[in-house]
Amino acid sequence: MISLETRICQLLKIDYPIIQAGMAGGPTTVELVVEVSEAGGLGTLGAAYMTPDALRQTIREIRSKTKKNFGVNIFAATVNDDFSRLAEVQKALSPFRSQLEIQEVQSSYQSPDWSVEQFTICIQEGVPVISTAFGCLSAEQMKVAKERQVKIVAMVTTVEEAKQAEVSGADAIVAQGSEAGGHRSTFSLENHPAGAQIGTLSLVPQVADAVEIPVIAAGGIVDGRGLVASLILGAQGIQIGTCFVAAKESGAHAAYKQAVFESNEESTVVTKSFSGRPARGIKNRFIQEFEQSGIQPLPFPSQNTITKDIRAAAARANDPAYMSLWAGQSTRSLTKEIGAAEIVQTIIEEAKKILT
């Protein structure tokens, strides 16, 4: 008999096996994290682009509004900038800046690398769950986390990455199928230049068979059917992103949400155009024209740094044609804003109905 009270519920001290993905860059507000946790899931703050001071303040604000467990998601990879082809890529970006009337263009750039400080702040502030993207914590960081009884969740896209995460000391693994929106956690782009392209249905059972620690399924899951299917495949819970991008409490731009509501399973592509790292998003004018230019983007995070002004100007202009509209492949059922708590409750109700 399949139960919704799984190992992941016990491990993370949550009522339901639903984790809200830690979406960096704005969607994960304090309100979103709190609502998901209060509803019985695990709210997660996407902290990768936050300054250390902002992160500390936000963690304290979340703590002031809920006694429930929550998580913080950070990058586990070292930032290595490469602006050697800056002039070439700027030529491809110039037409977009002209269209958006961006007058001033920086002559030099440097991507911030706050991951070490962010981890330290999470430990100092007593964050109960830390999830990592693009790799695993260092042995020293893992030792500190274990001493403080902080649960570590590593996101992976292959069986080998899952094994590596288990050996590193992770307490649980998120197996991210290729249907997932945004940046997935492929460890090495040398082995997988476009990111590992293994679907959720194939990835989850193989990861579950390969490791002893609990597995959380992610990628294209939007309802109770997805939760039950994931449990049957061997997962102990699910992680959901796109549903929560479209939630009332999400910090995603209104034009971004509307693009999600108007999209379907054919709308998204995997692109490096915005950030230099493969990410699934709704295809728009920026992606189409940048790729047609034939110019390769800079590596991550350098491309992400130099396109920041374009994305910001597009947001001010309410123009989704130049925004990074990260979304997964299961968007047909997302047609309007609903509360995060309702999302959690609806998924659980649907799952219970299926199981009974």
Give a summary of the structure in a few sentences.
The chain is α/β, with parallel strands linked by helices and 356 residues long.
Strand percentage: 5-15%
Shape: globular
| Computed structural class | alpha/beta
- The total count of helices amounts to 15
Tell me the series of helices and strands, N- to C-terminal.
Answer: HEHEHEHHEHEHEEHEHEHHEEHHHH
End-to-end Cα distance: 10 Å
Q: Biggest sheet: strands side by side, in what order?
A: 1-9-8-6-5-4-3-2
- State the helicity in percent bands: 25-40%
Layout of helices and strands:
Layout: H1 7-12, E1 18-20, H2 30-38, E2 43-46, H3 52-65, E3 70-75, H4 86-99, H5 115-124, E4 129-133, H6 139-147, E5 151-156, H7 159-168, E6 172-176, E7 182-183, H8 200-210, E8 215-218, H9 224-232, E9 237-240, H10 242-245, H11 254-261, E10 268-271, E11 279-282, H12 285-292, H13 302-306, H14 308-316, H15 340-355
Parallel strand pairs: 1-9, 2-3, 3-4, 4-5, 5-6, 6-8, 8-9
Antiparallel strand pairs: 7-11, 10-11
Helix pairs in contact: 2-3, 3-5, 9-15
